[in-house]
Amino acid sequence: DTGVSQNPRHKITKRGQNVTFRCDPISEHNRLYWYRQTLGQGPEFLTYFQNEAQLEKSRLLSDRFSAERPKGSFSTLEIQRTEQGDSAMYLCAGGLPNTGELFFGEGSRLTVL
Amino acid sequence: EDQVTQSPEALRLQEGESSSLNCSYTVSGLRGLFWYRQDPGKGPEFLFTLYSAGEEKEKERLKATLTKKESFLHITAPKPEDSATYLCAVQADRGSTLGRLYFGRGTQLTVWP
């Protein structure tokens, strides 16, 4: 158990609806990452925060995606106007600066019908 | 463009049959190479960090090695509980992308009794 919790674990939604995922890392992790993973693929980087600052966003992160980390604690990832191509596992990970040792949560699986 | 290629995609071993997984990478300045294990429906679990060519790390039946072009994950006398997908990731030594990890697609290892 890494101590990183993600909610909800599963979300089924209809195309066009908005969804929001939440990630709670442990307090020591001042870095927080969001990755997306589809079946048979490795995790793809979406964005990361150091404390409350969003330091980098992938080109994969279209305008429909937005992530926040108010007060440098929990983080939310919102997807607006979902599309079937958004169906994936959304992984959150906590970490420390200058290390690639990430502590992943168990993920939030999104299915868009 | 930074790339990580893992081979084979899938590997079936009999219990006790040692083998190696390969991770070849192309990155402009390697900051670190990481191995993770992922069980079905779970987030990746950190195994090793390697920073420079010639470095080796060991944990139980696993040993990771690094050259300038690739890394190997050696599995000695595997057991069925070693069955999982093994992911390789690299972190580039560039300021703008210092945070992100680039993952390969993984090798799905099955160890049968």
Please provide a brief summary of the model.
With 113 residues, chain A is mainly beta. Chain A is built from no helices and eleven strands. Chain A is globular.
Please supply descriptive tags for the structure shown above.
heterodimer; A: 113 residues; 4-stranded antiparallel sheet; 50% strand; B: 113 residues; mainly beta; 5-stranded antiparallel sheet
SSE map:
The complex is a heterodimer of chains A (113) and B (113).
Chain A: E1 5-7, E2 10-13, E3 19-24, E4 31-37, E5 44-50, E6 53-57, E7 65-68, E8 75-79, E9 88-95, E10 103-104, E11 108-112
Parallel strand pairs in A: 2-11
Antiparallel strand pairs in A: 1-3, 3-8, 4-5, 4-9, 5-6, 7-8, 9-10, 9-11
Chain B: E1 3-7, E2 10-14, E3 19-26, E4 30-38, E5 45-50, E6 56-59, E7 62-66, E8 70-75, E9 84-92, E10 102-103, E11 107-112
Parallel strand pairs in B: 2-11
Antiparallel strand pairs in B: 1-3, 3-8, 4-5, 4-9, 6-7, 7-8, 9-10, 9-11
Please describe what this structure looks like.
The complex is a heterodimer of chains A (113) and B (113). Chain A contains no helices and 11 strands. Chain A has strands spanning 5-7, 10-13, 19-24, 31-37, 44-50, 53-57, 65-68, 75-79, 88-95, 103-104, 108-112. Chain A is globular and about 40 Å long. The model of chain A has no long low-confidence stretch (mean pLDDT 92). Chain B is mostly beta strands and 113 residues long. In chain B, the strands form 2 sheets. In chain B, strands 2, 4, 5, 9, 10 and 11 form a 6-stranded mixed beta sheet that branches. Chain B has a 5-stranded antiparallel beta sheet with strand order 1-3-8-7-6, with no helix packed on it. In chain B, a hairpin with a 3-residue loop joins strand 7 and strand 8 (70-75). Chain B is globular. The mean pLDDT of chain B is 92. Classes of the chains: A mainly beta (113), B mainly beta (113). The interface between A and B is medium-sized, with 28 and 25 residues.
